[in-house]
């Protein structure tokens, strides 16, 4: 389904490609963005959505040296974040702290509390320990993986271990497994590499070139989603790496980024150089899951592409779900346009009688709902436990 966004917008002064949810802010729905100007002093914007959801409030605007190519928020301190930056042939990565009085007009600028300065090649990204208060973070350059120990009280970071990916692999990014804190997935020009941080060794790989970005499914173990040069996304089962379990071609040019929802396991965002953001409901098939042919119904299965937001004027490189309000996501196009969008939630609890498969109930309801709501964008999240007498069906409308 094609459509424009009905979100409120916020314009940055310069071009930009980085946006991150402020995970540690439990009182507000807020995001950090960083600009990418070659000639001007760059900026970091702290943006909050008003309690009524009708306004975007700039809570802080800070100068930042050099072009910002990656930005990640600290999961346990809302005032701390990391950036990867470069200018010409120079590059760097650092951890920053927002000043306490950032809401005042005369507030001081960002404080650089640690430099990740052990790299000898171009840095691609930083990854924070997935959740909670932990002192570890990872930085990735074109050839190497670094594990850092970060001390907030002493305001310094030290290399705990490092390893080279080899001269034949040019690393481009990565993601930290939220189900196994010792595991990372790294993207390179020729493959997706799976690493164990305890040994700092590669444990497996997906020989699949031209993956731009990837993300783990927070709610579904062993599930990895990749953004493909071939104009779509792939979903992988890490126990069966020969082929993807789901291939979703939905972009007309390179897919640059992909993000899994932090709460609803089947909701996925993707964006790319076709100036579109796609919202998916993508559930990997299982051997015991009935198909639409299992039931006597003329209706077609629900299209996994729920909506394609196409009113951007430039490539979309930045996507972020809100962890605090997981029905809200934000997009950032290269021309500096930031748009948050909200998915409203309707809950239905159908009764599952004895002898009726819960997945059968799900399929039948989806078929009925698709007829009623054929003109609307909707996503469905379904879960059922054998020990409970009812299944829960959640329908989200964009």
Biggest sheet features: 5 strands, mixed
Question: Please, what is the CATH homologous superfamily?
Answer: YVTN repeat-like/Quinoprotein amine dehydrogenase
* Radius of gyration, taken over Cα atoms and rounded to an integer in Å: 21 Å
- Per CATH, the architecture is 7 Propeller
The fold-level CATH name is: Methylamine Dehydrogenase, Chain H
Derived from helix and strand composition plus strand pairing, the structural class reads: mainly beta
Compute the number of structural domains. Answer: 1
Main-sheet strand order equals 1-26-25-24-23
Summarize the amount of helix as a percent range.
under 10%
Summarize this structure as a short list of keywords or feature phrases.
398 residues; mainly beta; WD40_rpt; Methylamine Dehydrogenase, Chain H; five-stranded mixed beta sheet; disordered C terminus
Quick overview:
Helix content is 4%, strand content 48%. The protein is mainly β and 398 residues long.
Task: Write a structural description.
The chain is mainly beta and 398 residues long. It has a single domain, classed as YVTN repeat-like/Quinoprotein amine dehydrogenase (Methylamine Dehydrogenase, Chain H, 7 Propeller), CATH 2.130.10.10. The chain has one helix and 32 strands. The strands form eight sheets. It has a five-stranded mixed β-sheet with strand order 1-26-25-24-23, with no helix packed on it. The protein starts with a strand and ends with a strand. 42% of the residues are buried. Residues 287-299, 345-352 and 363-398 have low confidence and may be disordered.
């Amino acid at each position: 389904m094609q459509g424009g966004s009905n979100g409120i917008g916020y314009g940055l002064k310069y071009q930009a490609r980085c946006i991150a949810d402020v995970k540690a802010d439990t009182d507000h729905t807020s995001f950090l963005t960083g600009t990418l100007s070659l000639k001007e002093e760059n900026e970091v914007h702290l943006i909050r959505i008003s309690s009524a959801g009708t306004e975007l409030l700039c809570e802080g605007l800070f100068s930042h040296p050099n072009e910002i190519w990656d930005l990640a928020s600290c999961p346990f301190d809302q005032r701390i974040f990391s950036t990867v930056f470069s200018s010409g042939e120079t590059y760097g990565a650092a951890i920053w702290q927002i000043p306490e009085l950032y809401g005042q007009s005369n507030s001081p600028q960002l404080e650089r509390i640690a430099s990740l300065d052990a790299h000898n090649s171009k840095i691609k990204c930083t990854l924070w320990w997935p959740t909670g208060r932990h002192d570890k973070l990872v930085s990735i350059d074109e050839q190497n993986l670094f594990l850092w120990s970060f001390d907030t009280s002493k305001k310094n970071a030290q290399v705990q271990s490092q390893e080279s990916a080899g001269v034949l692999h040019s690393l481009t990014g990565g993601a930290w497994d939220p189900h196994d804190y010792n595991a990372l997935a790294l993207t390179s020009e020729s493959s997706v590499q799976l690493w164990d941080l305890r040994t700092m060794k590669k444990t497996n790989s997906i020989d699949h070139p031209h993956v731009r970005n990837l993300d783990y499914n927070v709610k579904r173990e062993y599930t990895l989603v990749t953004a493909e040069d071939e104009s779509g996304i792939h979903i992988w089962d890490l126990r069966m790496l020969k082929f993807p379990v789901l291939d979703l071609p939905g972009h007309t040019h390179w897919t640059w980024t992909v993000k899994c929802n932090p709460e609803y396991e089947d909701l996925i965002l993707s964006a790319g150089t076709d100036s579109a953001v796609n919202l998916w409901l993508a559930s990997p098939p299982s051997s015991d899951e009935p198909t639409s042919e299992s039931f006597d119904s003329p209706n077609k299965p629900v299209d996994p592409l729920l909506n394609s937001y196409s009113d951007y004027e430039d490539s979309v490189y930045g996507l972020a779900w809100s962890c605090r309000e997981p029905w809200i996501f934000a997009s950032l196009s290269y021309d500096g346009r930031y748009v948050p969008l909200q998915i409203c939630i309707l809950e239905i609890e159908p009764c599952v009688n004895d002898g009726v498969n819960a997945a059968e109930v799900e399929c039948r309801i989806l078929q009925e709902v698709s007829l009623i709501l054929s003109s609307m964008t909707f996503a469905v999240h379904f879960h059922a436990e054998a020990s409970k007498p009812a299944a829960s069906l959640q329908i989200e409308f964009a």
